[in-house]
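User: I would dearly like some help making sense of a protein record. I have put the entry right below:
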Amino acid sequence: MTVPPLPPEPAEEKDLRKREKEARRLEAERGPLEPAFRYKAILNAVEAGQDLIELADRKARFALVIISVLNAVALVLVVRGGDSFIPRFGVWGAVSQAEIVAYVLVTIYYIFQAIEALRPRGSGPTTDPLPTSGAPSESMRVLFHGDIVRRDRADFRRAWEELRMDNLNTELADQLHVIARINQDKYAALARLYRGVSVMTALLTLTLVTIAAWHLTR
């Protein structure tokens, strides 16, 4: 005995179910993120912020390489040039020496900007009491190394066992805020450093032009 086939679903009912499904999808997109999706979004933002920190450090090291090349050229001019190459007396001597002194001072200043761009940053360990229970939407402070080492191993494991998704998302959001501040400070120092590279290049070029003009007027 064969089972008779089910009657086809009415087109109106099928269309109604499709519209309801689309409405639920739009409501989910317009509403708050689910904790798991929020975790992925914040984690991606944290990783992107860390990539920006590494990029800033690489750019600062590259600027130091350029400064080293400029300084090598300046050192050859001063040490190996001699009196026959660099003017020592008169108006030309005063101008070239002023340019060299300015170059040295600018170099020292912008080396400090390189240090500012490369120095470690971040919120250091605090003396605030660490949370012992996972209150809703509060950070349990289980990710930052300064907070981790303040707990013994048993307390640290227990904190992770009691950890809620909203606790984790709150702490990741705090870390993202810290990383954003680090990047803001780093890139501000990096901008000053590259302005310094431009100023040093201009000063060294001006010194070479002064030396060339002196040779042409001798």
